[in-house]
């Protein structure tokens, strides 16, 4: 279902929309309110595992939040994606910011987990859009490949699998392997 198929929504119209039916989350894409793919069990378990790992690391440095919409621009138009997780440091969004609204600045990190029906190519294109909108890092998590691909604004993407340690100078002290994430989430080897 697409809301406002004939007329283009403005950013303010989109942000003022009433909540969707049930647990439906919408993203503003090209002036349309597009429903986000509904997460399944493995997706939710991966979100929880990453939230736990990053949450422990970022204590006192910033916020890690699931399903928090971000107000960005894409191709010169308002864009409001809702990533599976985002991390934003207190340098970008002060610790005393306390508004119940979409994230008003590009976060340091966006994490998207590939859902059934989505492809890596679709997520890679979305990662490029995030980077173009000044998000500093994008991680795409693939439960079938048991991998985490890190997208950078100034370098080629890098895919981490197995016991290869994922580290990044932007997130000093945050380090784990893709396998640690999948084991923490209790994702079976044969997904």
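Sequence proposed for the structure above (191 residues):
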């Amino acid at each position: 279902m697409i809301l406002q198929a004939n007329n283009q929504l403005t950013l303010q119209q989109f942000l003022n929309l009433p909540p969707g039916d049930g647990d439906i989350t919408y993203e503003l894409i090209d002036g349309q309110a597009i429903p986000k793919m509904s997460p399944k069990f493995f997706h939710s378990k991966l979100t929880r595992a990453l939230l736990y790992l990053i949450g422990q690391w970022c204590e006192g440095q910033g916020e890690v939040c699931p399903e928090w919409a971000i107000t960005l621009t894409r191709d010169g138009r308002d864009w409001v994606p809702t990533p599976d997780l985002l991390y934003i440091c207190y340098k970008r969004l002060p610790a005393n910011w306390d508004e119940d609204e979409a994230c008003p600045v590009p976060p340091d990190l966006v994490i998207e987990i590939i859902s059934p029906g989505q492809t890596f190519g679709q997520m890679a294109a979305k990662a490029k859009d995030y980077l173009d909108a000044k998000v500093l890092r994008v991680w795409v998590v693939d439960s079938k490949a048991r991998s985490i691909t890190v997208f950078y604004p100034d370098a080629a993407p890098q895919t981490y699998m197995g016991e290869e340690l994922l580290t990044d100078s932007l997130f000093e002290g945050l380090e784990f392997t893709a396998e640690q994430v999948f084991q923490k989430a209790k994702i079976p080897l044969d997904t």
